[in-house]
Amino acid sequence: MIQVNNLSKSFESIHAVKNISFSIQKGEIFGLLGPNGAGKSTTINMMSAILKSDTGEVLIGGTNLNKNQNHCKALIGVVPQEISLYDDFSAYDNLMFWGSLYKVPTKTLKQRITDLLDLIGLSERKNDLIKTFSGGMKRRVNIAAALLHKPKILFMDEPTVGVDPQSRNRIFEIIETLNKQGITIVYTTHYMEEVERLCNNIAIIDDGVIIAQGTQSELQKKSHVKEAVELTFNTINAAQEENLRALFDLSVNANTVRIQCDVNKELSKIIAACNTNALDIQDLQIKKVNLEAIFLSLTGKQLRD
Amino acid sequence: MILTILKKDLKLFFSDKKAVLLTFLMPILLISLFAFAFGGTGGNNNNANPIKLLIVDMDQSIDSKSVISKLDSLNEIVLIPKDSTEATSLVLKGKYVGVLIFEKGFQEAINLGADLPLELKYDAAREIEMGMLQSVLMQNLMQTVGQKSVKAKMNTYFDKNFAGIPSGVKDKIFADMETGKSGMNGSMNMNMGLKMTSVIKENADRGNLGLIQAVAGTAIMMLLFSIAGIGGGLLDEKEAGTLKRLLYSPLKATDILFGKMGAALVLAILQLVVMFIFSWLVFGLPIFKNVTALVLMILATAFAVSSFGMLLVAIAKTRQQLQGLSTIVILVMSAVGGSMVPLFVMPAIMQKIAMVSVNYWGIQGFYDIFWRNLGIIDMLPKMGVLVGIGLVLSIISVRLFKRNIMKLIYS
């Protein structure tokens, strides 16, 4: 559906995006994950034709974006990071305005607005001014405004910034509904949990470079990060530690031992080894692999640095 | 503690270059402008530019030529010979302050002591220049043909009322008059029969000159401010992120600018219409005497002003920049262009500089409608200039906007 080839962009001396390439299949929720300033928004802006790349190309449904912008723009909807709505217009008037820019026939547009207001759960508030809405409600209208022309692809640039958990869940549900309707979604965020929940294909971007791309399990393999069992004992002596080290890949911090392993296969073996070595288990935690750990492993830094 | 606060505030103030510029440069600029406009640079009026006066000599006599020659030698006046019809038309159109017409029989009237067939047709819209001109003319007419005329007049009077008066007595009276011994010098400065005629006939249908100046001058200046404000909405869109969203849609950057310009134009037209209707209702400005010309003039002025507003918007990157820029540019342009003070009180050089401003062409156009009663054909050049200014500014704005739009989004 989308093919990005060797895209680069510099702003004076700052190389915001450095020769990145990736592809997105139809119907995917593609996550572009990276810290602030990694190049996510610049990439989205180039993919949505408002920013010209220095090098490279973007193909939307096989069409070169720069060569046929109008055709491509009709296929794309963009949810910007900012709440880009007119505060002194009602939700309905905002949607009418943004829809009219795509020359959607008035009758069709009105029906589409009704459907979208239903989807975002704001039909009752359609005539209220945007400035009277909460942050979460504004975010939902912000999403609806990108869907009026029935785009095949939706770019969502950090659409949950500054939103409370309840509204965030509501937005996730909307995204999942849209994806079920067949819309391909490109989702940028610096929240790991959002990518983990929503995205089936992820690209990790840092300092303008795509560090890795794939499903979460593919990324896990690339990063060599494994699940772990974390055991806290009453006390552990050197001999006991040596015995465990002979059996497992472990690290020790005071009375806590972290064992990297395939938890499903090796948990019973670990507990048996503890019993054999007379180790009194005070606490046991299973540490699943998450994107936070993968990102840390791949980039050497925390995502929210 | 107070000193610490004081130092901090001064440091903050001087770190804001725009604020410093507005605080010091702006008043200096305006003071210079007004000082130059009203007082010149030398502290007196000797260096003032001469008044251009049209001359029609239909008498072609020794006396008429002598007066013209004397006037021509003055620094205060530049004489331009024309025929009567063309000269009157030029004054009517506001091109010259007046025309001095020596009718046939000028010399004969002097010799007979009759009222001089001498007429000064003038543009009442330029009353200050007119006052200066009248004073200079009277003074020099007296010096050239005054004594001859008065002597002839008194001779006729003596012959009529004191037929038997010895000629020696008459000669003594005339000699004393010439040397000033009679104490009649003051009365020598009598009206030489100079007929003063405004080329524009006063009638109930004509607007009051001061009112026209106030309405047109203020309307255009305020229009410039409000259009800059409306255009500033584009910068608000940048702040709100809606400008970026507009660009995600199939709209082009120029579509956005033209849309804004269209809105500014409509509002400019509305604002002018409301101001003129108000002036009609409250002050009796005769807005219906040439509706077509008024409508065309409003359209042309609104177009030029809205284009100017858009240029300011295309240059500025933030609301603050726009505010500073528009305050300086609009105030200076309004002062120079005649919105704040009538142009006729300014030196000729300032009146020339005024021609680069939108205000000048707008105000002069409204003068043509309400004061000079000109027809549409005569007003076309001024409308054309306004439309031309609008077109040029629009082209520059579009180019600047296209070049700056991404900077605008990412600044």
What separation lies between the terminal Cα atoms of chain A? 32 Å
CATH architecture descriptor of the largest domain in chain A: 3-Layer(aba) Sandwich
Q: How big a fraction of the residues of chain B is strand?
A: 5-15%
**In the CATH scheme, what's the topology name of the largest domain in chain A?**
Rossmann fold
- Oligomerization status of the protein chains: heterodimer
- Are there runs of chain A of 5+ residues with pLDDT below 50, and where? none
Morphology of chain A: elongated
Query: How much strand of chain A?
Result: 25-35%
Number of strands of chain A: 14
Uncertain spans of chain B: 41-47, 185-189
State the major sheet of chain A: 6 strands, mixed
* Derived structural class of chain B: alpha/beta
Terminal CA distance of chain B:
38 Å
What does the model show?
The complex is a heterodimer of chains A (305) and B (411). Chain A is α/β, with parallel strands linked by helices. Chain A has 2 domains: 2-84 and 145-222, Rossmann fold, CATH 3.40.50.300; 226-288, Alpha-Beta Plaits (2-Layer Sandwich), CATH 3.30.70.260. In chain A, the strands form 3 sheets. Chain A has a 6-stranded mixed sheet with strand order 6-7-8-3-9-10, sandwiched between helices. In chain A, strands 2-1-4-5 form a 4-stranded antiparallel sheet, covered by helices on one side. A 4-stranded antiparallel sheet of chain A has the order 12-13-11-14, with helices on one face. Chain A has helices spanning 40-47, 69-75, 91-100, 106-119, 135-144, 165-180, 192-198, 216-223, 238-247, 263-276, 291-299; strands spanning 2-11, 14-24, 29-33, 55-60, 63-64, 76-79, 153-157, 184-189, 201-206, 209-214, 228-233, 249-253, 256-260, 281-287. By secondary structure, chain B is α/β, with parallel strands linked by helices. Chain B has 2 domains: 51-198, abc type-2 transporter like fold, CATH 3.40.1710; 209-410, no CATH class. Chain B is built from 17 helices and 5 strands. Chain B has a 5-stranded mixed sheet, sandwiched between helices. In chain B, helix 3 links the parallel strand 1 and strand 2. In chain B, helix 9 packs antiparallel against helix 12 (253-283), helix 13 (291-315) packs antiparallel against helix 16 (358-370) and helix 16 packs antiparallel against helix 17 (376-410). Chain B is elongated, with a radius of gyration of 29 Å. In chain B, 34% of the residues are buried. The A-B interface holds A 11, 48, 50-51, 69-70, 73-74, 76, 78, 80-87, 98, 101-103, 145-146 and B 240-242, 244-251, 406, 409-410.
